[in-house]
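To: structure desk
From: M.T.
Subject: fold request, one chain
Message: Could you run this one when you get a chance? Sequence is below, nothing fancy, just the single chain.
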Amino acid sequence: MNELAKQLREAGFPYKTAEDFDYLPPLSELIEACGVHFLTLERYEAAYWVARGICGEYHNGIRGEHAESVVAKLWLWIDLNK
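Reply: Done. Structure tokens follow.
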């Protein structure tokens, strides 16, 4: 099982289209689940992605190789800080 998908499932991510939890949900689902806390998703020189979010007075930017994984990690951060 994809470790990040497992973390999402354990944290109660509201899966809509995934029939199993072996894969990350589509990017659009991840962004939608972040709600008003999602700020931006940016690509830097085809090398990495950065997802930025806000939760209360806290801001966070998560960097990684895949857009889906950085937004999934952002959702986990948001979920912990609500």
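Reply (cont.): The mean pLDDT is 91. Let me know if you need anything else for the meeting.
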